[in-house]
């Protein structure tokens, strides 16, 4: 599982509910790599790079404060693993320009960020770099929001093209014969029969059986299994693994104005925002505009406060809000109270942990150093194989 986040400085509750909670669940389930995509930040913010390092550290402090755990996940900074850049370069050799020009975010972002000149080589290559981030770790799952799905799809296409170009071994048939010779002779005969049924008669059952046989036959090495699969299906060996996007049902946290919480709308609550300021923001948060006086009944579905209740409150509180609002039984100040309590309770431990980490930046640096060592070891293995199949001389 691989995922990156561009360093944008202090994170807010939208990041927490939309992305980080999902990371927290994933780190318990599977091997995760989480990294700060500082090079990606430079593709759009190359003119004022002075802050990138600082923003990276602040973002990582927030990750750790919410519970992203260096014991469970590998946490690092993209630019500390230069192998990403090498793979990006090599993938750029085989990525058709048209594929990049067609990625929706390319034109969209240029439109959105009109004040910046994004007609650069680096920005066009943004998804290739993202592809390298994923493929270098054989990432099979990439949890992303909707806006990133096209990038993961492109990553799949690049992997497929790479495998097609470099996964074909001229001596595959001989190698397969050598592999089969070492197995039980009956197994070899069965394999040939199944392959023939698949290739000559399109027998799907035979294909499924042969695949299972390859996956399960004891004692085969991974490259040999890959070779058998390539031979069976008449394709190429999987050198780079095609990832699947893991679309996160992002709990779209509404901001103070009811729109999606986002820094560009100025409607956020930062994870490290002083709690009195948080209370102030909630107190002044707009409610159903039709509810002018305390005695006017309101309609929760027209109220951004209700949107927050749906994230923070249990069924009982939600029923209390709906009933009380529609009957004018409760006032808006009262309605916001459980919300304030829930948000405060959520933020308090995060802020305590963030204070500790900010006071001991050496600890954060050490976590990142250990993470990049781990990531580099993994990335190095992939690069070794990539250089080899691309015909580069190894050192
Ligand atoms: N482009 C992603 C974003 O803006 C960040 C990112 C960079 C990423 N590399 C990645 C996400 C690899 C997942 C996997 O959100
Ligand atoms: Fe919104 Fe609650 Fe006021 Fe109803 S009572 S308008 S839901 S803040």
UniProtKB/TrEMBL annotation:
Keywords: Aminoacyl-tRNA synthetase, ATP-binding, Ligase, Nucleotide-binding, Protein biosynthesis. GO terms for cellular component: cytosol. Its EC number is 6.1.1.2. InterPro entries: aa-tRNA-synth_I_CS (IPR001412), aa-tRNA-synth_Ic (IPR002305), Rossmann-like_a/b/a_fold (IPR014729), Trp-tRNA-ligase (IPR002306), Trp-tRNA_synthetase (IPR050203). One of its GO terms (biological process) is tryptophanyl-tRNA aminoacylation. GO terms for molecular function: ATP binding; tryptophan-tRNA ligase activity. Pfam families: tRNA-synt_1b (PF00579). The keyword Ligase applies. It comes from the Bacteria. It catalyses: tRNA(Trp) + L-tryptophan + ATP = L-tryptophyl-tRNA(Trp) + AMP + diphosphate + H(+). SUPFAM superfamilies: Nucleotidylyl transferase (SSF52374). Belongs to the class-I aminoacyl-tRNA synthetase family. This is Tryptophan--tRNA ligase. It comes from Candidatus Macondimonas diazotrophica.
